[in-house]
Amino acid sequence: MLKSYLKIAWRNLRKQKVFAAVNIIGMSTALCAALLLSLTAYREWTYDNFHENGKNIYQLISEEHTGSQLRTGSSMAKPLAVAIQKEVPGVKHTSFIAGNNTPVRYGANHYYLSTQLVDRDFLDMFTFPLIKGNKKEALSQLNQVVLTQQAATSLFKDAEPVGKTVELNLSGQWQPYIVSAVAADVPDNSGIEFQLLTRLENDPDFNTTRNDWGAANFPLFVELEPGVTPAAFEKNLNIIVKKYYKGKIEDLQKNGGAGAHGKDVFYISALGLKDFHLTEGSTFYSGLNSFYPWLMIILSGLIIAIAAINFINLSIARSFGRSGEIGLRKSLGAQDNQLMIQFWAEAFLLCCFALIVSLALTAFLMPYYNQAFGHRLALSVFRNVWVVSGVVIGFFIITLLAGGYPAWKVARLNILQVLKGKLGLGKSSGVRNGLIVVQFIVAVVLISCTCIIWQQLNFIQSAPLGYNTSQVISIPLDNATPSDISTMKQRLGEMAEVRSVSGSMLNLGLGNDGSSGNWTRGFTYKDRHVATKCVAVDYNYAQTLDLKIVAGRDFSREYGTDSNAIVINELMAKQLGEKDPVGLYFKMGDAFPVHVIGVVKDFHFESLHNKMEPLVMVINAPLNYIFVKVESPNAVASLKKITTLWKSINSLAESDPSFLDENAQRLYRQEQRFSKIFMSGAVLAVIISGMGLFAIAVLVMAHRKKEIGIRKVLGASVSGIVLLLSKDFLRLVVVAIVIATPAAWYFMRRWLQGFEYHTSIHWWVFALAGLIAVGIAFLTVSLQSVKAALANPVDSLNRD
């Protein structure tokens, strides 16, 4: 029986090639977009789901209530791990994870491998299976390394890697390490990535900070014993937090700090591994907005809904040409359920063709999609039985929804009306009008959101940051020796286009090395807790960045006492409560007393997501970046020249220098991704909505053909008829605009609240979105309206 229905459906579709082509194109495009977006969401949600002990693994996150704000941090002090293992019950394993790119040398060749410095428990906690070697012994010695299979192949080709000696440059000099094991390549949905593992004790600064409770550098993970709840662990953990951070807690309380939700002013919580990837700011490696995958699902659902609406409208419109067939079938005794199955079979065939085309499109477009939106999807995802099951189930649901309604509608028609050619489908205009409104609500929301996101990106790009971004080049000092840095500064000073050279421990923005961070210090000043961001800088820092000095002076080699001097910003001066802070002496915790020599105007040293904070600049710490101010008619040529010079001096330099304005833009990659997604969604929504409106226009014009003929005989003008036929549709679009505007305003207002500095939402954005929607609707409907108005009225009136 089903086979017979499908054969008849195939013959009918072959007769209606245009109808079939339009439906297949619309539905396959929507399915392709929905597949790509849904697979993206699936991949984000399944990050780190391969760890066997994942449900018992947690990352520690600190919460510091200063009184005026809440600070969260993912870096922990090294002695905390020892204290947890000794004093907190229910803890099975702990491990720090410190990542960087490390030069690795074997023979005459050297490579850069993504390296994680970890504790011995790492391989027992996380499921990174070993292909060669013993898990218990792989990291038992400090001079051992574990390579992934890909890294081992790059280094040793087909030779046996275990037991081989490689050299690592972790502290400016090459040191030998023994390959103790080879791990399987890290899955692409892992929040922890590496090509090489070695012990944390190999970190050059390990011994200086191993007992320092004030030095928090790396994220710490714990694995709890089965049955231990995170709440019980947090309760016991924060008992020792009060013990070892007693001074810090007292300082926070003096400053008016108060814990929220029953927590203390300084509290350490446990973030589950399942939330590791989708918690902003949780780690050095992940921290994606948790709404991002939901955005993918919402957009895919909206696009499919619009395509399904079009499918329904086209199917109903096509039914007018099949009144004879429907009437004949009914008169010969066809039951409603048989007609419904017949029409659904046609819809099913169309959807099958659309699915096949969409799968081909998905495979073809996936590389371009990954490149455009920064994703890493691969066709191998279809090997997952859950993904395939989801696609099949989703396909049948879409088919039932898109094909089921028109099939049900046609099957219930009165036989006498059908035989007279009066299908009566136009009487139930409520559903039709609702479908139009839904389509244009989606279109207007997406158009409005795209405009506001674009405005915010422009605001970010043009906002004054308080320092020179267009003329300053940042050079990452990865793997550089002090001699390399000294030589580079000397050679830069000899270049005609270089106006000033300085340096810093921290970059501004996000450089080509992908590194960013901050350094926070808290101390007591006049019985008040003071918290500030700190940065170690080189001489000429203010001059190179064009920072405005509002009081005092910058660091100078002419003053030998500047090694204990600091330069602060205006917010720090305000926090200290001193009218004239220049010359002020005080202690920042247990360090030597410092004295303020200058005050600079506040500047945005962090993302515009964050408000400007107090800042202290010191000059007695190692540098990780060189800043170079250049004046040249060809900035790109200057950048290339400096890059070439740097790589000739430091042969191990991996990351290229970049201008600070490029660094600033990299901070907003997620917003740029949102913009592309919304823009693509808006274009698809408008195109598919236009197709649906065209289908409904065909349906309505067919119903009103005689009315139009009578109006023309009575003297109605073409323009009057076009306006008459269009105004009903335009009313629906206006209703959609009225509903969509507050929805778009609400969503974008919530989104903008994630920025401390953002643009305003202007009324004209919604007016523009509405005009675009009205314009598209009018053009689409008027094409059919003009055609109907120009038709010969004799032909219309002769129609039975």
UniProtKB/TrEMBL annotation:
<dbReference type="GO" id="GO:0022857">
    <property type="term" value="F:transmembrane transporter activity"/>
</dbReference>
<feature type="transmembrane region" description="Helical">
    <location>
        <begin position="386"/>
        <end position="408"/>
    </location>
</feature>
<feature type="transmembrane region" description="Helical">
    <location>
        <begin position="729"/>
        <end position="748"/>
    </location>
</feature>
<feature type="transmembrane region" description="Helical">
    <location>
        <begin position="677"/>
        <end position="702"/>
    </location>
</feature>
<keyword id="KW-1133">Transmembrane helix</keyword>
<feature type="domain" description="ABC3 transporter permease C-terminal">
    <location>
        <begin position="681"/>
        <end position="789"/>
    </location>
</feature>
<protein>
    <submittedName>
        <fullName>MacB-like core domain-containing protein</fullName>
    </submittedName>
</protein>
<dbReference type="InterPro" id="IPR050250">
    <property type="entry name" value="Macrolide_Exporter_MacB"/>
</dbReference>
<keyword id="KW-0472">Membrane</keyword>
<feature type="domain" description="MacB-like periplasmic core">
    <location>
        <begin position="22"/>
        <end position="237"/>
    </location>
</feature>
<dbReference type="InterPro" id="IPR025857">
    <property type="entry name" value="MacB_PCD"/>
</dbReference>
<dbReference type="GO" id="GO:0005886">
    <property type="term" value="C:plasma membrane"/>
</dbReference>
<feature type="transmembrane region" description="Helical">
    <location>
        <begin position="760"/>
        <end position="781"/>
    </location>
</feature>
<feature type="domain" description="ABC3 transporter permease C-terminal">
    <location>
        <begin position="297"/>
        <end position="415"/>
    </location>
</feature>
<feature type="transmembrane region" description="Helical">
    <location>
        <begin position="291"/>
        <end position="312"/>
    </location>
</feature>
<feature type="transmembrane region" description="Helical">
    <location>
        <begin position="429"/>
        <end position="455"/>
    </location>
</feature>
<keyword id="KW-1003">Cell membrane</keyword>
<keyword id="KW-0812">Transmembrane</keyword>
<dbReference type="Pfam" id="PF02687">
    <property type="entry name" value="FtsX"/>
</dbReference>
<feature type="transmembrane region" description="Helical">
    <location>
        <begin position="347"/>
        <end position="366"/>
    </location>
</feature>
<dbReference type="InterPro" id="IPR003838">
    <property type="entry name" value="ABC3_permease_C"/>
</dbReference>
<dbReference type="Pfam" id="PF12704">
    <property type="entry name" value="MacB_PCD"/>
</dbReference>
<feature type="transmembrane region" description="Helical">
    <location>
        <begin position="20"/>
        <end position="42"/>
    </location>
</feature>
<feature type="domain" description="MacB-like periplasmic core">
    <location>
        <begin position="480"/>
        <end position="640"/>
    </location>
</feature>
